[in-house]
Amino acid sequence: MDEHDSDVFILCADHRIHIWSAVKRQGLLLPGRKFDKLSGYGVQIYLAYPRELERDYNWIAHQLRFGTKTFPPVVNRKKRVVLIGHRKCGYYSNIPKRPSEDEEKDDVLRSAETVSRLSHGTMDVEAYYAIRDGGEVFLETLLGSAINV
Length: 149
Ligand SMILES: [Zn+2]
Known about the structure:
By secondary structure, the protein is an alpha/beta fold. The protein has one domain (6-143): Beta-carbonic Anhydrase, Chain A. It is 29% helix and 28% strand. It contains three helices and five strands; from the N terminus they run E-H-E-H-E-H-E-E. It has helices at residues 19-25, 54-70, 101-119, and strands at 6-12, 34-40, 79-86, 123-133, 136-143. The chain is globular, with a radius of gyration of 15 Å. The model has no long low-confidence stretch (mean pLDDT 85). Bound molecules: zinc ion. Residues 12, 14, 41-42, 86, 89-91 line the site of zinc ion (ZN).
C-alpha cells in the first residue's frame, strides 16, 4: 500500500440506512489508507444523469477532479472511488422517477462509468448496493472490489 494512494467514498446522506457501518464492517476501509467521504442526498446517482441533474452532476464532477489535485495520482498511482447505492433513495423524487431495484443498481453503475470516463482511467472504480439483511445492512458488490466480499 502506497502513502500516495487515497480513496473516495461516494454515498447517500440518508441516515436511516447505516451504510457507513457496513463499509467498516465489510472492510472497505483499507488499513492505513487516506480517504475522503463525499456524502449528499442521492450523490451516488448524480453522475448517472449529467443532463437531468446538471447542477449536482457538475458539483460532484468538480469534487472528483479537485480531489485528484489534492492527492495527486503520482505516476502509476491510482485513486480508488467507491460508489454506494441503496433501495428507495428519496432523491429520485427530483428526477422524478420511481426506479426498481435493478434500475437503481444500473444508475450506480452508470455513475461508475462516468467516473472512469472523467478520470481517463486514473481511478479504480467500485460500486456497491446496500441492502437490509435482517437488522443489518449488507453491501452487495456491483462492480470491482479491492476486498473480497
Ligand atoms: Zn438515498
